[in-house]
Amino acid sequence: MGVKHLAILGFGYSASTALADALLECKEFQSYPDYEEIDELRAPGGLVDQLLLYQKAKGKKILFLKLMLNGIVRLVRRFIWGFRVNLFIKNSLSFRSKISNNFKRLQCDMHYISCILWIKNRSQVADVHCLISFYLNGLRDSCKVDKGHTLILNQITFPEFLVSELLMSLPSDVKITVTTRNVFDSLYEMERYGDYFESQDLAQDFILGRDEQYILRRKNYLNVLRYRIESMTKSAALFSDDIFIVSFDSMIKDFDKLFSEVLTFSGFSHDQVSCNRSTKNERHFDPERSAKNIRPYGVTEDFLKSLGYTESMFDEIKALNVLLVNLETSNRAHHKRLRIS
User: Fold this and answer.
1) Among candidate residues 236, 266, 258, 226, the one with its CA nearest the CA of residue 328
2) Are 11 and 17 in contact (CB under 8 A)?
3) Which of 4, 40, 81, 89 is 20 to 30 Å from 223 by CA-CA measure?
4) In whole angstroms, what is the distance from residue 97 CA to residue 99 CA?
5) How does strand 150-154 pair with strand 29-31?
6) What is the pTM of this model?
């Protein structure tokens, strides 16, 4: 029997979704509707912030009505959006699967409202651990996860936020897998496929700066990434049995071996799972196809230089890569010792 909840976290474009896609080809792993990222706990103004705010608030009745109204509006908006996406946008799912998926989404959104009611009734005697426990148990029921199967929690938090609370909320029922990747490759894809560093609004410009080519923001991101890696290094040492580090390189070089290790970490063995790893699956992870995303240093260096990255920033990226390698090496050595013993 596998662990009840498996959180999969990443550091940004680090192949966490690819790992989840591979696991979801086994029927013993199930997910939130459409394998969306789960924002309810980690988001600004999310359930954790609501609990802390409600505990301090003086006008609790007014705050409760505001939270409930926001929760109901959220439910209606997400239902309409999900209905449109699941029923009118073409994909490989059958009509029956689309209806089922939309119903699961509605159940999860109703559970969000039940968490607001829980905050109202329990805020004076409960803490963040209790809230996370209530949320995860209800989420598992809302997602209709079969007994003995594992619910994948996609990006339910950040590597530097709520990790210990998540693991301590349901001891032995929650484990965390964290994917890492060469920072040069991660930045290459962040810059090429997103606009994360461009100006968004006036308040953000004031806090993050508005210099030419947004170099200030890019430097700040490297500082944040260092903090995340150092935070996860501490967490992996403290909860060594419950955190498993996976690098993108290891997924490419020997995927079968790595996949077997992830299954073992999740409480399964190969003969206990029914996997249908087929290239016909539109979300199938193919190591050979993904190998092209490991790029020569010269390619990423030239691309990042064209965006204004400096030599000092390259030195910091190299130092971050050393931290990531050390994190994976020490963690994998620990789990190897566990398997042998």
Assistant:
1) 236
2) no
3) 40
4) 5
5) parallel
6) 0.90
Residue holding tokens 């040069």?
184
Percent of all residues in the chain with a pLDDT value above 90, rounded to a whole number: 56
For residues 268-293, average pLDDT: 76
pLDDT of residue 183: 96
* 211 has pLDDT over 60: yes
Q: Where are the alpha helices (DSSP H) in the chain?
A: 16-23, 47-56, 60-88, 95-122, 128-142, 163-169, 183-193, 202-208, 215-238, 248-253, 255-265, 287-290, 297-306, 311-340
**Neighbouring C-beta atoms of residue 20, cutoff 10 Å:** 23
Three-state SS for 262? helix
Strand 150-154 with 174-180, pairing: unpaired
CA-CA distance, 229 to 227, in Å (whole number)?
6
Question: Which residues are within 8 A (CB) of 30 and not within 5 positions of it... i.e. 6 or more apart?
Answer: 24, 143, 144, 145, 146, 149, 150, 151, 152
End-to-end Cα, the chain, rounded Å? 20
Contact 35, 152 (CB under 8 A): yes
User: For the residues 301-312, what does the mean pLDDT come to?
Assistant: 95
Tell me what the mean pLDDT of segment 186-194 comes to.
Answer: 92
Q: What is the pLDDT of residue 135?
A: 95
Residues 6+ apart with CB under 8 A from 189: 13, 293
Other beta carbons within 10 Å of 43:
12
- CA atoms of 224 and 335, how far apart (whole Å): 28
Burial of 120 (0-12, 13-18, 19+ CB in 10 A): middle
Per residue in 216-253, is it b (16+ CB within 10 Å) or e — as a string?
ebbbebbeebeebbeebbebbeebeebbbbbbbbbbbe
Six token digits for residue 212? 């030419």
pLDDT at 92 over 60: no
